[in-house]
User: Fold this.
Amino acid sequence: MTKAERIRNTIRETKERRKALVPVVYQLKLQNLSRKKEETLERAFLEAKWLYNWLVADPARLDLPANGISEVEVKVGGSSRRGSSPSSAPRSSRK
Assistant:
């Protein structure tokens, strides 16, 4: 199989996978949040993104019970690290 055929097959497989995806957007209006609550909310969304990406990276992981997962592998830049510890994530800077 030539390189062009491999690329073509990969693109076709990606298109097939994406047909099953349903885009969902939630828009919330949050007012009068304390800085601590805002940071906690940002952290929750970040960890949810990590969990989602970890799950879709390997479909076999979908059979695992969600409450049994305490740590996932997170890619930061070009390197990998373990994610989920509150002290390991960089704090957001706010002016």
Remarks:
- The chain is about 40% helix and 10% strand.
- The beta strands are 72-76, 79-83.
